[in-house]
Specification:
- By secondary structure, this protein is an all-alpha fold.
- The protein has one domain.
- Helix content is 66%, strand content 2%.
- The chain contains nine helices and two strands, in the order αααββαααααα.
- Helix 1 packs antiparallel against helix 3.
- The longest helix has 32 residues.
- It is globular, with a radius of gyration of 18 Å.
Length: 225
């Protein structure tokens, strides 16, 4: 990145994307009956409620300022208490594992939807002849960051959402690995950094992100010039 302006062109979409992600964790938990996040003021689209000073601000600025090809950041996790899930499906109370799977999946799914809508806004503005570099660039980052967040968070390693989604499908005898990583977040974090630094994760995420861009563009081609 060359300037402070360029850094803000990335940080603002990133903060918006993380806020939407955490909001929908809180919203889905409340829908299931757990008001923990709501009572702590986390059921809001106000970014201030979700900022982790180091993970949301300082670390991303460090990566961007150093022109690093490696980029990483996070928001303050939304608290979820699965014991409080009371939602009924077909007359049966949702199980804790199913409830956690739903609340975990809500974050990445919200990023997919946000990225899709941002892509549509970009295409509409271009079709309308809008040439604001700042606006169009920010929308491009908004699409890219949301799609990356959606794919990245589905990696099945704690504390990422993918581990809770996968755990909801696994038989109980296979969940010991996830329980261990949940209890030893340092080990999980080292594994995650290793996958990122070695490029293994990039080889998986890259094609998926390309598919999302291509599919979204093809969809809007049907309706927009």
């Amino acid at each position: 990145m060359d300037t402070v302006r360029d850094i803000f062109l990335v940080l603002i979409p990133m903060l918006m994307s993380l806020t939407v992600h955490e909001y929908w964790h809180a919203r889905s938990a409340l829908w299931l009956g757990d008001d923990t996040a709501y009572m702590q003021g986390r059921l809001t689209l106000n970014p201030v409620a979700h900022i982790d000073l180091f993970g949301t601000i300082l670390l991303p600025i460090l990566f961007l300022w150093s022109n690093s090809n490696f980029f990483f950041g996070w928001a303050k996790p939304v608290p979820v208490n699965p014991v409080r899930f009371v939602r009924l499906f077909n007359g049966r109370r949702v199980t804790m594992s199913t409830g956690m799977m739903i609340t975990a999946a809500a974050g990445p799914l919200s990023n997919l939807a946000f990225g899709f809508l941002a892509f549509g806004a970009f295409r509409l503005l271009v079709a309308a002849g809008v040439h604001s570099e700042v606006t169009l660039t920010m929308l491009q980052y908004l699409v890219g960051i949301n799609y990356i967040l959606a794919v990245f968070n589905l990696v099945p390693l704690p504390p990422l959402d993918g581990s809770k989604v996968l755990a909801g499908f696994l038989p109980r005898r296979f969940q010991g690995w996830f329980d261990y990583l949940e209890a030893n977040t340092f080990v999980s974090f080292i594994l995650l950094i290793a996958l990122l630094r070695t490029g293994v994760l990039g080889h998986v995420m890259g094609p998926v992100r390309t598919f999302l861009f291509t599919a979204t563009n093809a969809f809007y081609d049907l309706f927009l010039p």
